Amino acid sequence: MNIEYYIYLALALFSIGVVGVLTRRNAIIIFMCIELMLNAANLLLVAFSKMHHGIGAATNPTAGIDGQLFVFFIMVVAAAEVSVGLAIIVMMYRNIHSVDINFLNRLKH
Amino acid sequence: MNALILSAIWGVVMMFSGIFTKSGAAIRGIAITGLALLLVVNVLDFQGTALVDINTRGMLVYNTFSYMFLNIVFGATLLYFFLSGSDMERVGLHLAEYFALIFFILAGISIVASFQTLLMLFLGIEIISIPLYILTGSDKRNLKSNEAALKYFLMGSFSTGLMLMGIALIYGSKGSFSLETIGAGTGVITPLLGGGMLLLLASMSFKVSAAPFHFWTPDVYDGAPTVFTSFMATIVKVAGFFAFIRLFETSFGSVQAQWQLFAAIITAATLLIGNITAVFQQSVKRMLAYSSIAQAGFMMFALVSLNGKGSEGLIYYAAAYSLATIGVFAVLIKLNDYTFEGFNGLGKSHPLLAATVTICLLSLAGIPATAGFMAKFYMLSAAVENGKVIWLVILGVLCAAISVYYYFRVIQAIYFKDGEPQVAEVSTTFKVVMVLIAVLVVYFGIFPQRLTDFLYMVY
Fold it and tell me: In the predicted model, is pLDDT for residue A1 greater than 90?
């Protein structure tokens, strides 16, 4: 399949994530949108990995494998980030009984 | 390389030390020992005696600049531990864990000081960021700390998302994550490569809080416990800059003409917004947050000019800015009242603290004979040497003049206003280290080559 399709799909997912982060007010939904952005990058990396493998396989049998390796790192780091992020959101919920980020304006005088 | 391994191991040691002892002094002692060891190991590594030698297959490459930068980072952190280590106990019960997180951040800094592939850049930045989210929210009962942590976390992961998309696009056009492969033959900018480069520029600007991506900074720095703000605003910020410049120098240095204007505009906006907004602040802590944005503007000069002088200047700026800001924050933590009025009369009641903090503030303002002046001088002369951005140099000088106003407001409160400042108990070690910082600031201001000469030493 043509690589352009993957690029457009990944960019569409990424844009949905960005718009979600900028417009939604619920911390959990913003968090989901950030995950969507990370996964768009994952999808694109895997697609490019396959593409580079197709180009370079004749000379180098492991061409393009580093793209897929990167995806594993992103998954691990995203999991670490989720654990810290959810802990922060729970801590917040305990104090104000809400996860609405409109409450986040006390710091601005 | 050895510093990276040792700091990761020492982070685990710190976590376990929290199980075996509850004594704050013992835990601080272990942390300071660890950091001193880190410094020694790094200096040894610099001179070519590596304790362990691991083949990273070109993913991490340490050069003189990395070693020198790490020496400055570890040295500044050591002073920070001496000054503010005891104040961490006031944040919460988990003193050993705070130290452990700081050691993990130092491991991340050793990665960003030496990365040679985008994979290591991503891992380094994340290893720095994730512990910082926790440290920001470590004052769990305080609503401001909660908000700061959530805001920092959401903004930080958003910029990580941008960075990953940028990396994916660059990988698509180049087929490799290695900075050198990306840098070779980047003569023509394809849409994929250009898009990736802009996304990386935006996400790194987020991390170093350059305008227009700075809006999270004042809130986060204000809300975080002051001891950790001190660490975030100095050491972590200069590490971000080191990564930023290393990335753009190696991989996009050959197409600098294409993105120099973007970088110059970001620099100008950062300088203007940081300096002008700092003038209107009522709280010294918030003023220092804006001042850190303003100083980031000066560090951006190294990116805009991208020459040897700029890299030297960055090393120098890292030392001058970290030392002075850590000193000011250390005194601020001891005060009860964070407004400018809180400093009233400090000159009479605590002459030694007042004198040292004044030297730090003079250095931040860039008054001659202090390290801050030479740091600004290096940055501006790097831009003059580059030659294409003279308008930015003029703007930089004007903004440095504005910055004198808000730093001198503090000095004015210290010496020319009467009041009874509420200052917490100050130990002898604290005074000795404050004097040491003041002496270093003046020493590097008079003999700047003492720091940069190391860069050209060959062992």
Answer: no
Please report the residues numbered 19 through 38 in chain A whose beta carbons come closer than 8 angstroms to any beta carbon of chain B: 21, 27, 30-31, 34, 37-38
User: Looking at the domain assignment, is residue A29 inside a domain?
Assistant: yes
Q: Extract the residue ranges of chain B whose pLDDT is less than 70.
A: 185-187, 457-459
Which member of A30, A45, A104 has the closest CB to residue B168? A45
pLDDT at A104 over 70: no
Looking at beta carbons, which residues of chain A come within 8 Å of B219?
107-108
Q: How many structural domains compose chain B?
A: 1
**Are A41 and B171 inside 8 Å of each other by CB?**
no
Select from B211, B205, B383, B377 the least CA-distant residue to B294. Answer: B211
A109 lies in some domain = no
Q: What is the DSSP string of B341-352?
A: GGGTTHHHH-HH
What pLDDT, in 10s, does the model give residues B93-136?
889 999 999 999 999 999 999 999 999 999 999 999 999 999 99
Q: Please state the domain count of chain A.
A: 1
Q: Concatenated DSSP letters for B287-336?
A: HHHHHHHHHHHHHHHHHHH-SHHHHHHHHHHHHHHHHHHHHHHHHHHHBS
Q: Cβ separation of B144 and A107 shorter than 8 Å?
A: yes
Interatomic CA distance for residues A55 and B122, integer angstroms: 26
Whether A13 has its CB under 8 Å from any CB of chain B: the answer is: no
Q: How far are the Cα atoms of B63, B319, B357, B371, B427 from residue B448, in angstroms, in the given order? A: 21, 11, 21, 7, 31
Question: A10 vs B168: CB contact, 8 Å cut-off?
Answer: yes
Task: List, in order, residues 6 or more apart from B454 with CB less than 8 Å away.
Answer: B64, B68, B71
**What CATH number corresponds to the domain at position A73?**
1.10.287.3510
pLDDT, residue B449, reads 84
Mean pLDDT in chain B?
91
The per-residue pLDDT of chain A, averaged, comes to: 90
pLDDT at res. B256 = 86
CA dihedral angle for residue B82, residue B106, residue B68, residue B381, rounded to 10 degrees: -90
Answer yes or no: is A108 within a domain: no
Whether A7 is in a domain gets the answer yes
pLDDT tens digit string along A64-86? 899 999 999 999 999 999 999 99
Question: What pLDDT sits at residue B57?
Answer: 87
Give the residues across from B115 on adjacent strands: B60
- In the prediction, which pLDDT does A105 show? 67
Verify whether the Cβ–Cβ distance A81 to B157 is below 8 Å.
yes
Domain that holds residue B115: 2-456
